[in-house]
Design a protein that fits this description.
four-stranded antiparallel sheet, 6 helices, alpha+beta, 188 residues, Arc Repressor Mutant, subunit A, 4 strands, 43% helix, Alpha-Beta Plaits, single chain
């Protein structure tokens, strides 16, 4: 029996690649972490997560500084990648999207090319709200929103399983949602 943790074994090499990728992503993000956010920056991020449309003058009042430095701080947070974008949160049921699923995807191959092919393909699918490269039994975790179960089934048959290198899917259907937050705790 082959030792799974032996150098040269495909699974062993893939695990090293996966762990390296995770660490590389972590260290690449340190440039943003090391910006040294002060309490005012943290408060700005906290307020903007609750109301991205707040006027600069109102934001300035809430953080207790004048509007020009407030606008400057917001611009700095945007330019340094702390604020990725501004968006509206839409009620999925009101727009006819009532089926939310999480899908674990396992690939046939675990090399760099297979992973990149999958990632290049998955970002083009509008039904996929989130895609996470994960550890554990599966390779990716997807959050998918569709109109209903039959629409989800067609998505799986015609789109997801048609992607290169997909070997196995495991679907978890959301029955109800107790908590759904988009706000990241930044301290304050």
């Amino acid at each position: 029996m082959k030792n799974k943790n032996k150098p040269g074994n495909t699974l062993f090499c893939y695990e090293i690649y996966r762990n390296y990728s995770i660490l590389l992503g972590y260290f690449n993000n340190l440039q943003y972490i090391n910006m040294n956010l002060d309490q005012i920056d943290k408060k700005i991020l906290d307020i903007l997560q609750d109301d991205g449309r707040i006027r600069t003058s109102e934001l300035a009042k809430q953080i207790n500084i004048s509007p020009p430095p407030t606008a400057e701080r917001v611009k700095k947070l945007e330019n340094n990648g702390y604020i990725k974008k501004y968006t509206a949160l839409v009620d999925p049921v009101k727009v006819g999207v009532s089926c939310l699923t999480y899908v674990e995807v396992t690939l046939v191959r675990h090399g760099k090319d297979a992973i990149e092919r999958f990632m290049d393909s998955i970002v083009k699918l509008d039904e996929v709200l989130e895609c996470h490269h994960i550890t554990g039994g599966a390779d990716f975790l997807l959050k998918i929103a569709t109109k209903d179960i039959p629409t989800y089934e067609q998505f799986i048959i015609n789109k997801l399983t048609a992607l290169p290198d997909v070997q196995h899917l495991k679907t978890l259907v959301v029955l109800s949602t107790l908590k759904h937050e988009t706000k990241i705790p930044v301290g304050g």
